[in-house]
Amino acid sequence: MKEQREHVGNGKTISFEQAHVIEKQAAQSAADNSREHVDAASSILHDVRASALAWMDVTMQMILKIDAAQALLNGRSQNAIKRPISIDDAAMEKAENERPDAHSVAASD
After folding, report:
1. Backbone dihedral region for residue 54 (phi beyond 0: left; psi -120 to 50: alpha; all else: beta)
2. Does this model's pTM top 0.85?
């Protein structure tokens, strides 16, 4: 079964196999050195990159929700992350700092 990913911004769907084909087409367009081919390939790559970033953000939000649910199950609701975040260095660092470390969890048991 081919796994498909939906581009959150415009509803396009792209599989990993399609992304590989697009990568090959972009390389060929760059080799052809035709300005319109390069522009077309650049546009396609921009869409694929946007799709990947959107899915990265969705994945991180899912991970944070799973972590929050696990914290609730462990009776540590004060450690649950209750807000979605965007993918950037500051937000990731803050989320990482909000997670309990192994020593503090072991000490509270």
Report:
1. alpha
2. no
Domain boundaries, the chain: 4-108
- Tokens describing residue 41: 């390939």
Per-residue pLDDT tens, the chain, 109 aa: give them. Answer: 344 444 434 556 667 777 778 778 777 766 766 777 778 778 888 888 888 888 888 889 899 998 888 888 877 555 445 555 455 656 666 666 666 555 554 455 4
